[in-house]
UniProtKB/TrEMBL annotation:
Belongs to the isocitrate and isopropylmalate dehydrogenases family. LeuB type 1 subfamily. It holds the Pfam family Iso_dh. Its EC number is 1.1.1.85. It comes from Companilactobacillus allii. Binds 1 Mg(2+) or Mn(2+) ion per subunit. It is found in: Cytoplasm. Mg(2+) binds at residues 217, 241, 245. Pathway: Amino-acid biosynthesis; L-leucine biosynthesis; L-leucine from 3-methyl-2-oxobutanoate: step 3/4. The gene is leuB. This is 3-isopropylmalate dehydrogenase. Catalyzes the oxidation of 3-carboxy-2-hydroxy-4-methylpentanoate (3-isopropylmalate) to 3-carboxy-4-methyl-2-oxopentanoate. The product decarboxylates to 4-methyl-2 oxopentanoate. Its main location: cytoplasm. NAD(+) binds at residues 275-287. GO terms for cellular component: cytosol.
Length: 350
């Protein structure tokens, strides 16, 4: 039997391969001389896969992902594939569907090291996650129609779709500060009323977790005015899409934020929240922190290696503290130099 963890690696397009190299180097360093044993399979995905096979998600890539314990993705897409029939992004939608990745989780962390980048005044440490339903709601509901004078989108949810993502949120809260806020528009929307009914039921299974609700308009204000009050924000697809970009903005550092998409049984997928940044590709200046933190998130959530994740996060903080950072964070270090610094600090800390 092969007891090594299998990790599927999808480097993707433009800056994708540049930051993936950093992530893998850090993974290798942090697992050296430990019992964390893994094997990677690098497979084509997105634009890179379209060039090779005319398909953003080739069967072989999907199969590798299905047989892995976790998936690391850097970034896909870009102007080279504008207007192709099967876009790189359609590959991403398909992989989510095939693997049943119905939850997307994004952390927003602003500690004393990062607070100088925030466009808002940070008076207390910020550390919350948004747990967003990813495979249902208005982006998928039928009917969807458009004529010259009228258009229809449909927001639809089943109680089962709500329950499974709610459980992810409460499980996450149990590992964190035991507080879940459901964000909805229950004063107007029927779907939101169902969310409230189902989530209160799930909340009863987690008596230790404080549970409250917030309307989405009010939550949008609080993310700016009182972000410290949140621990886990649970919300549906459209609201989560908008709020998670808002939350990313208050960190002031798009190039540093990881994310995780997970389902019930399949391997979880970890990726930076930003795109493939064609404007800076090939210049060696892409910020690798989002990818490196995606590796840390994978170690923590897929493999239960909080110890290794912590080593990475400490080294990342140190690089920001010492201003060993790429131009997007005001430094003049290259992707490679930042990565080398992080690798060296991990080695020194042992
Ligand atoms: P997508 O639609 O794929 O999300 P996008 O149009 O939102 O793409 P991104 O690729 O996310 O754009 O990039 C937005 C801006 O942020 C660009 O100017 C890009 O150069 C910059 N950026 C994104 N990621 C990084 C990074 N890791 N390091 C430095 N700059 C980055
Ligand atoms: Mg974008």
């Amino acid at each position: 039997m092969n007891s090594k963890y299998q990790i599927a690696v999808l480097a993707g397009d433009y800056i994708g391969p540049e930051i993936m190299a950093s992530g893998l180097q850090v993974l290798k360093t942090v697992s050296e001389n430990t019992d964390f044993d893994y094997e990677i399979s690098e497979v084509p995905f997105g634009g890179q896969a379209i060039d090779q096979t005319n398909d953003p998600l080739p069967d072989a890539t999907l199969e590798t992902c299905q047989n892995s314990d976790a998936i690391l993705l850097a970034a896909i897409g870009g102007p080279k594939w504008d207007g192709v029939e099967k876009s790189p992004e359609s590959g991403l939608l398909r992989i989510r569907q095939e693997l049943g990745l119905f939850t997307n989780i994004r952390p927003t962390i602003i500690n004393s090291t990062m607070k100088s980048f925030s466009p808002i005044k940070i008076t207390e440490p910020i550390d919350f996650v948004i747990v967003r339903e990813l495979t249902s709601g208005i982006y998928f509901g039928q009917p969807r129609e458009k004529s010259q004078t009228q258009a229809i989108d449909t927001m639809r949810y089943s109680s089962e779709e709500i329950r499974r993502v709610a459980k992810v949120a409460f499980d996450m809260a149990m590992q964190r500060n035991k507080h879940v806020t459901l964000v909805d528009k229950a004063n107007v929307l029927a779907t939101s009323k169902l969310w409230r009914e189902v989530v209160i039921d799930v909340a009863r299974e987690y008596p230790e977790v404080k549970y409250d609700t917030s309307y989405v308009d009010s939550a949008a204000m609080k993310i700016i005015s009182k972000p410290g009050q949140f621990d886990v924000i649970l919300t549906e697809n459209l609201f989560g899409d908008i709020l998670s970009d808002e939350a990313a903005q208050i960190t002031g550092s798009l190039g540093t934020i990881p994310s995780m998409s997970k389902g019930e049984v399949s391997p979880a997928l970890y990726e930076p929240i930003h795109g493939s940044a064609p404007d800076i590709a090939g210049k060696g200046i892409a910020n690798p922190l989002s990818m490196i933190k995606s590796v840390a998130m994978m170690l923590q959530y897929s493999f239960g290696r909080m110890d290794l994740a912590k080593q990475i996060m400490t080294a990342v903080d140190k690089s920001v503290d010492k201003k060993i950072v790429t131009p997007d964070l005001g430094g003049d270090y290259s992707t490679t130099k930042v990565t080398e610094f992080i690798v060296d600090s991990i080695k020194e800390s042992r």
